[in-house]
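Colleagues,

For the teaching module next term, I've prepared a clean inverse folding example: a structure given as tokens, and then the sequence designed for it. I'd like students to try predicting residues themselves before seeing the answer, so please don't circulate the second half yet.
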């Protein structure tokens, strides 16, 4: 084999990091980019030395493309992915896999029937930070994991985004925009979620755009702008997650896993590297003993790659006949969890999660993105 041919559909802002990385990996070769805006496709192709550009149809018809990278808006994810499957292509899609369970499930069935694979962001799970943290947990550094706390709280993307309305619309909000990062990490660590209870609130019904040509305009808030989710996992662990666009205090990327023999702080699930540290229990405290706890840093590889790592793992996994890490099945289960949380917040009832997922594999320890392996 040689480098696998890649076609990219959707060349918005996120395409820059994908094109930069996929053009640098020896095992992948970007052959064509496509977009509704043909001029934007041409510009990105020229910027990254991609030999062809055009529409989505042009990408799907390209005979050298084996894997389609779907970077369209979330509402179009299922449609574009299904078209790629129908064209006989493997698919890597940005998160979420889709916006409804039926469409996402049908996509996975069609892919299986066609003999092609689906991969779904986030691929931060493949970053050296998360991989090292997960290995530390599996080596018993904190004993048996018991529960997790995760936090993402910010003033909201309307503070900086020139067109933030879609982030507060149905299919988004902090739950579906940021939730995939946190719950993909939790499912990778604890296994599938069994049931969820969630609570949602809005700071206000309308928000204002603060930057760009539309500054001063208002837009409706269609979904809860703060969500708190309690999840119970099939394995017995629990998690508590705060996702908010309403906090004056900026605090995000917090993932703490607490076990019988200690606590581990792991990197921001929206990043590929970061701090990993473990604290042991204090033990029995007697008069005069210090309450100060010592944090032990866990060193790990500091090679940070970025978006596209999941697609690279897919092409190598296909060649090796092994499962890829950020699978469509994982993406579907996380989507199911998030939609279940949405339903719980709306009804006030605990919701049983219908789907499950196989254990998420670790990357091979010698995985080097910049090695030619095909």
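(Answer key — instructors only)
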């Amino acid at each position: 084999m040689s480098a696998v041919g890649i076609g990219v559909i959707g060349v918005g802002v996120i395409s820059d990091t994908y094109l930069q990385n996929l053009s640098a990996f020896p095992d992948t070769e970007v052959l064509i980019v496509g977009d509704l805006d043909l001029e934007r496709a041409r510009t990105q192709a020229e910027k990254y030395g991609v030999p062809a550009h055009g529409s989505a149809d042009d990408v799907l018809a390209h005979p050298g493309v084996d894997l389609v990278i779907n970077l369209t808006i979330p509402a179009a994810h299922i449609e574009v992915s299904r078209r790629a499957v129908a064209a006989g292509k493997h698919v890597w899609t940005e998160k979420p896999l889709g916006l409804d369970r039926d469409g996402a499930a049908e996509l996975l069935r069609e892919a299986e029937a066609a003999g092609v694979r689906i991969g779904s962001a986030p691929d931060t799970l493949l970053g050296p930070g998360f991989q090292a943290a997960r290995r530390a947990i599996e080596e018993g550094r904190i004993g048996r994991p018991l529960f997790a706390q995760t936090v993402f709280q910010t003033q909201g993307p309307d503070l900086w985004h020139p067109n933030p309305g879609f982030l507060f619309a149905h299919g988004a909000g902090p739950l579906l925009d940021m939730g995939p990062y946190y719950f993909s990490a939790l499912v990778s660590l604890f296994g599938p979620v069994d049931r969820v209870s969630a609570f949602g609130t809005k700071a206000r019904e309308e928000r204002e755009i603060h930057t760009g040509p539309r500054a001063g305009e208002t837009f409706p808030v269609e979904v809860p702008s703060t969500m708190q989710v309690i999840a119970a996992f099939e394995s017995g662990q629990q998690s508590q997650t705060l996702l908010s666009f309403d906090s004056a205090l900026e605090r995000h990327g917090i993932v703490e896993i607490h076990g019988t023999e200690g606590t581990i702080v792991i990197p921001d699930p929206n990043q590929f590297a970061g701090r990993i540290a473990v604290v042991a229990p204090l033990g029995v405290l007697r008069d005069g003993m210090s309450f100060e706890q010592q944090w032990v840093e866990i060193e790990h590889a500091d090679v940070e790659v970025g978006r596209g790592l999941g697609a690279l793992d897919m092409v190598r996994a296909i060649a090796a006949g092994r499962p890829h890490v950020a699978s469509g099945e994982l993406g579907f289960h996380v989507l199911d969890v998030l939609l279940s949380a949405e339903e719980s917040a709306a009804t006030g009832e605990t919701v049983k999660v219908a789907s499950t997922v196989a254990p998420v594999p670790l990357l091979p320890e010698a995985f080097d993105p910049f090695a030619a392996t095909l």
